[in-house]
Q: What sequence folds into this?
């Protein structure tokens, strides 16, 4: 494909985007490499996986990008979101059940991936090889080795990659303020960081039922083992609602190790991320991960659940993680959702809604120096996490949630799960990124993909 045909296909898409006033603006390949400058020269996106978070990140992006296509393996979800996007941008996006269709489209600059976790790595890797920049939801990976693979492909392809840990950019900059407080010594030497990420509920036995007509169950499973679809009739209410409360599919996939890592990776990906950033532990890792107490909702043998009809991710836990500089990191299902930083001179608590404690009150009489937040962020804080991604696409610099620092903190979450599954503490070598002296535990660093869904990288 030449730059002129690419420009032409992009123009064709943009000519339809009358509602956003961007019609007729071409984006030559050379312009992209140099960074686009025209205020109307918006990048073209496609979202893959739309039901809950996919729509949230799409919605947050209308101000900055145009959506040429949407992909979902649930035709009802797809239909609803095509209508929503059309309402917002005045042009109907194309719709596909197969993500590879958007990877083939030369007019699409970037993909936003919000499928369940077990699909992230395969789609992200193929998207980068197809020349797309990638915004992929957290937790980025299902295993530690998937993280290494993504790093390799980012390096190889030079694509810009944002992970969806938006606490780094959003939440009224509370988490940035927390990191600035720590960095400016307002709690003295850090001794302990406690990440409260809440527990999960166990499930009743969930029976095999017919697959809903609108769902391509085999593709939803993708790289995961082939199993039957399960659900109970009771519906989930509130956040993420409108689907069965107990199932092995939409939203509930979080509770299954086959597709995700329970709360440890779901919320751990947010709060452990901020903890590691504050500790300056973004390119290293712990020396030991020790489960102090925990409950797995089903029986495990050799690290694997012995039944297939109930949620299997930990429901309660308290994990002790030995971080560099003698800092103790605790990840717990108890207490408030948020992060408590404790040091020799004081402590404070931060979550998405508040930042409280004496060091915060003291800011009134002793504010942080000007620019302290920007220093943490590495520049002016972007309007939101998508805006930061697009700034990265322009400058060809990695955005604020880069894959390297994300993988380092996610290693702690994955190791916590492995330690609970095997019922023992793990010693970790952060340089080799290996568990020390435990071949069984090391066998959990990767997983086999189902035949036909291997990653070609
Ligand atoms: N950043 C955040 O705060 C945040 C919040 C919620 C969810 N998430 C993340 O977003 C991801 C999705 O979570 P959710 O709650 O939206 O889940 P969900 O189950 O509600 O939605 C996932 C969607 O992906 C679709 N899908 C599955 N496989 C697909 C494939 N191969 N191709 C295209 N579509 C596919 C499903 O049909 C479904 O519509 C998870 O990784 C989750 O951790 C992040």
A:
């Amino acid at each position: 494909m030449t730059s002129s045909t690419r420009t032409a296909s992009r123009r064709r898409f943009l000519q339809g985007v009358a509602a956003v006033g961007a019609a007729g603006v071409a984006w030559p390949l050379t312009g992209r490499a140099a960074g686009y400058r025209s205020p109307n020269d918006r990048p073209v996106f496609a979202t893959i996986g739309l039901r809950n978070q996919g729509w949230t990140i799409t919605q947050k992006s209308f101000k900055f990008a145009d959506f040429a296509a949407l992909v979902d393996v649930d035709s009802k979800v797809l239909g609803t979101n095509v209508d929503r996007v059309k309402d917002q941008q005045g042009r109907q996006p194309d719709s596909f059940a197969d993500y590879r269709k958007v990877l083939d489209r030369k007019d699409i600059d970037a993909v936003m991936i919000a499928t369940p976790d077990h699909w992230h790595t395969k789609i992200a890797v193929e998207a980068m090889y197809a020349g797309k920049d990638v915004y992929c939801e957290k937790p980025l990976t299902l295993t530690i080795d998937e993280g290494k693979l993504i790093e390799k492909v980012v390096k190889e392809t030079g694509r810009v990659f944002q992970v969806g840990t938006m606490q780094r950019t959003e939440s009224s900059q509370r988490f940035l303020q927390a990191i600035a407080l720590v960095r400016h010594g307002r709690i003295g030497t850090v001794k302990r960081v406690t990440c409260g990420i809440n527990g999960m509920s166990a499930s009743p036995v969930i029976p095999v039922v017919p697959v809903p007509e609108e769902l391509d169950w085999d593709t939803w499973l993708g790289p995961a083992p082939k199993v039957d679809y399960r659900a109970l009739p009771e519906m989930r209410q509130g956040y993420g609602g409108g689907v069965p409360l107990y199932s092995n599919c939409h939203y509930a996939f979080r509770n299954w190790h086959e597709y995700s890592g329970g709360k440890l990776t779901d919320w751990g990906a947010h709060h452990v991320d901020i903890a590691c950033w504050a500790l300056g532990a973004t390119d290293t890792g712990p020396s030991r991960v020790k489960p102090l107490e925990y409950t797995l909702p089903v029986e495990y043998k050799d690290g694997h659940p012995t039944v297939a009809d109930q949620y299997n991710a930990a429901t309660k836990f308290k994990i002790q993680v030995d971080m560099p500089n003698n800092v103790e990191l605790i990840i717990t299902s108890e207490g408030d959702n948020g992060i408590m930083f404790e040091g020799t001179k004081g402590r404070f608590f931060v979550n998405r809604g508040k930042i409280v404690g004496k060091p915060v009150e003291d800011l009134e009489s002793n504010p942080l120096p000007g620019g302290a937040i920007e220093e943490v962020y590495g520049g002016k804080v972007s309007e939101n996490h998508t805006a930061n991604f697009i700034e990265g696409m322009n400058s060809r610099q990695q955005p604020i949630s880069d894959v390297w620092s994300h993988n380092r903190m996610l290693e702690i979450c994955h190791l916590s799960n492995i330690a609970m599954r095997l019922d023992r503490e793990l010693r970790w070598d952060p340089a080799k990124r290996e568990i020390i002296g435990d071949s069984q535990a090391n066998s959990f660093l990767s997983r086999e993909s189902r035949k036909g869904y291997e990653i070609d990288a």
